[in-house]
Automatic annotation (TrEMBL):
<keyword id="KW-0436">Ligase</keyword>
<keyword id="KW-0460">Magnesium</keyword>
<feature type="binding site">
    <location>
        <position position="40"/>
    </location>
    <ligand>
        <name>Mg(2+)</name>
    </ligand>
</feature>
<comment type="subunit">
    <text>Homodimer.</text>
</comment>
<feature type="binding site">
    <location>
        <begin position="40"/>
        <end position="42"/>
    </location>
    <ligand>
        <name>GTP</name>
    </ligand>
</feature>
<comment type="function">
    <text>Plays an important role in the de novo pathway of purine nucleotide biosynthesis. Catalyzes the first committed step in the biosynthesis of AMP from IMP.</text>
</comment>
<dbReference type="InterPro" id="IPR033128">
    <property type="entry name" value="Adenylosuccin_syn_Lys_AS"/>
</dbReference>
<feature type="binding site">
    <location>
        <begin position="12"/>
        <end position="18"/>
    </location>
    <ligand>
        <name>GTP</name>
    </ligand>
</feature>
<comment type="pathway">
    <text>Purine metabolism; AMP biosynthesis via de novo pathway; AMP from IMP: step 1/2.</text>
</comment>
<dbReference type="InterPro" id="IPR001114">
    <property type="entry name" value="Adenylosuccinate_synthetase"/>
</dbReference>
<dbReference type="InterPro" id="IPR042111">
    <property type="entry name" value="Adenylosuccinate_synth_dom3"/>
</dbReference>
<comment type="similarity">
    <text>Belongs to the adenylosuccinate synthetase family.</text>
</comment>
<feature type="binding site" description="in other chain">
    <location>
        <begin position="13"/>
        <end position="16"/>
    </location>
    <ligand>
        <name>IMP</name>
    </ligand>
</feature>
<dbReference type="InterPro" id="IPR042110">
    <property type="entry name" value="Adenylosuccinate_synth_dom2"/>
</dbReference>
<dbReference type="InterPro" id="IPR027417">
    <property type="entry name" value="P-loop_NTPase"/>
</dbReference>
<dbReference type="InterPro" id="IPR042109">
    <property type="entry name" value="Adenylosuccinate_synth_dom1"/>
</dbReference>
<feature type="binding site">
    <location>
        <begin position="332"/>
        <end position="334"/>
    </location>
    <ligand>
        <name>GTP</name>
    </ligand>
</feature>
């Protein structure tokens, strides 16, 4: 049975968490492979809304082993809060249900301080980070100055690394950014306590994943953010600080490329993004506000209102190429109900030239004008529809046109936030090798 990768096709917030939860009863393990607690996955089960930032969405299923890979940057305080919250709701998060890679890097207080200080200094040119310290943590990882999860349980090593890092970070915070330095004593005490509490969860995630696959078990790899927040292939510099593409599963978990069987992209029926950066199909008027309110488009992590716009097939075709999708899942289709027409951007126009592909240059991309294909809308309530054939004709026309334009079949369609509000359009998972 397969190793299945679920990734976002846009700028994140596509509904990946719900899709992982929907298919989790068919897998044995769910693994996060990149990002940090700047991402939030929202699940609605039996009318109760839960938001996850670090723990994989499969934790609500008692038979699943959840794992956090080495490609994730971990804020131990946030992780422990999530564990405590779930335990308080009667959902056990014991070490036999959650494993954290010993090689995952730790978000430290100075990372968050630097993140916020930089954004304040940039003013109007700010990127729009969440202030969670994600970028500075990945910087230290690349600079070989990072603190890993296993360092938290080795007091001598941790204190030495903390001292060396604070010498540099506090100099920057105090003398360049003009903000308060981070206390070495308080940080040492707090993070060593975190290490003591997390010690039972720390393990070799790469070894677990490879053993599971060798035993014929199903493993689902859960991405955070979306394709165009990838640090290499996204709308740089308005991106996250890790590789969000499916290919990063291998590095972010410790797995050979030949082990991946199927890659599925999650597509929202319209487009949203949080923070700054170009957005060709953005709607700035009443229609954009209407979609935001109907779709509940506010950040799970920050509460920030998301920018909303029509579906962009130029970007989706690129996402399919970058990730190698075998299928896609369409989410939030119900939000478009009641619109007299729905639009799909199929090309761009810039400087008098028609483009089928997005330009690599951000300045040119920011000036692209979308060229739309217009389809008729539908008024029927689709949130209670359970069969694809029972969808209104215009709804099916929209879905099938997307399949033609992306060149990838639609596997499932989400028509609401709950598990049961999901339509399987065609068998897929059961056919995986």
């Amino acid at each position: 049975m397969p190793a299945l990768v679920i990734v976002g096709t846009q700028w994140g917030d596509e509904g990946k968490g719900k899709i992982v939860d929907v298919i989790a009863d068919r897998v044995d393990a769910v693994v996060r492979f990149q990002g940090g607690n700047n991402a939030g996955h929202t699940l609605v089960v039996n009318g109760k809304k839960r938001i996850f930032h670090l723990i994989p969405s499969g934790i609500l299923h008692s038979h699943i082993l959840c794992m956090i890979g080495n490609g994730v940057v971990v804020d131990p305080g946030v992780l422990l809060e999530e564990i405590e919250r779930l335990e308080g709701e009667g959902i056990p998060v014991t070490p036999d249900r959650l494993k954290i890679s010993a090689h995952a890097h730790v978000i430290m207080p100075y990372h968050k301080a630097l993140d916020n200080a930089r954004e304040m200094r940039k003013g109007k040119s700010r990127i729009g980070t969440t202030g969670r310290g994600i970028g500075p943590c990945y910087e230290d990882k690349a600079a070989r100055a990072g603190i890993r999860i296993h360092d938290l349980i080795n007091e001598k090593v941790f204190l030495e690394k903390l001292k060396n890092n604070l010498e540099e970070k506090n100099f920057l915070l105090r003398n360049f950014y003009g903000v308060e330095p981070v206390s070495e004593e308080d940080t040492a005490s707090r993070y060593l306590e975190y290490g003591s509490r997390l010690k039972p969860y720390i393990d070799d995630v790469s070894l677990y994943v490879n053993r599971y696959l060798a035993q014929g078990k199903n493993v689902l790899f859960e991405g955070a953010q979306g394709t165009f927040l990838d640090v290499d292939h996204g709308t740089y510099p308005f991106v996250t600080s890790s590789n969000t593409l499916a290919g990063n599963v291998c590095c972010g978990v410790g797995l050979g490329p030949s082990s991946l069987d199927y890659i599925v992209g999650v597509v929202k029926a319209y487009t949203t993004r949080v923070g700054s950066g170009p957005f060709p199909t953005e709607l700035s008027g009443d229609l954009g506000d209407q979609i935001r309110e109907r779709g509940g488009e506010y950040g799970s992590t920050t509460g920030r209102p998301r920018r909303c716009g029509w579906l962009d097939l130029v970007m989706l075709r690129k996402a399919a190429r970058l990730n190698g999708f075998q299928a896609v899942v369409l989410t939030k289709l119900d939000v478009l109900t009641g619109l007299p027409e729905v639009k799909i951007a199929t090309k761009y126009r810039v400087d008098g030239e028609i483009l089928d592909e997005a330009p690599c240059d951000l300045e040119t991309f920011s000036r692209c004008e979308p060229l739309y294909e217009v389809l008729p809308g539908w008024n029927e309530d689709i949130s209670r529809v359970s069969s694809y054939q029972d969808l209104p004709g215009n709804t099916r026309r929209y879905v099938e046109r997307l399949e033609e334009l992306i060149g990838v079949p639609v596997w499932m369609i989400s028509v609401g936030s709950s598990r049961h509000e999901t339509i399987v359009k065609r068998p897929f998972f059961e056919q995986a090798p």
